[in-house]
Amino acid sequence: MAGFLSTLKRIYLSVYNWAVFAGWLQVLVFAIKALSESGHAAVYDAVEKPLQLAQTAAVLEIIHGLIGLVRSPVSATLPQIGSRLFVTWGILYSFPETRTHMLVSSLVISWSLTEIIRYSFFGLKEALGSAPSWLLWLRYSTFLLLYPSGISSEVGLIYIALPFIKASEKYCIRMPNTWNYSFDYFYAAILVLGIYVPGSPHMYTYMLGQRKKALSKLKSA
Description:
Distance between the termini: 32 Å
Strand content: under 5%
Shape: globular
């Protein structure tokens, strides 16, 4: 029974990783095509649906960690996925004024390159039991450039959205109301920006530690 469940888990995780890999590959191809043919202002419209689908699918990774399907700590997974979902749905989807900015291009390319490498790495590990050494190196090295470019794009887009958030009052709850509760999305967005300040260096340091561990195993292999 245990062997059957283990096989079932590997099949599920393999299918999941390769499905999301295909989604991010589509995002990258559409982004490059739009960028080369029409410029940065056309990138979001070209990638909107596959971007939303691929990024939202990452919610399953939090569930995988919570139920012990994977060893990734939820404390590391949750902030990263949460911030990306906030940018995907809370900024780009909610405030169309941000969609034509050039930072969308750097965001989409940084995210898609990172995820294409990551999901293919884990897809091969689940399907074949291992991944080639060059892919392992890419998995634990490309973040050195792609993480700063992705984070900078996220922060930049949230900042650019602030005037539109304030003017629209979208998602705000004003008093008086039945619940006797108020919520201001503008200040929530500022709070999210504030979380990036300690959160980004912490995550980068964590990934450097993971890189050191992974590459030391590679050298000793």
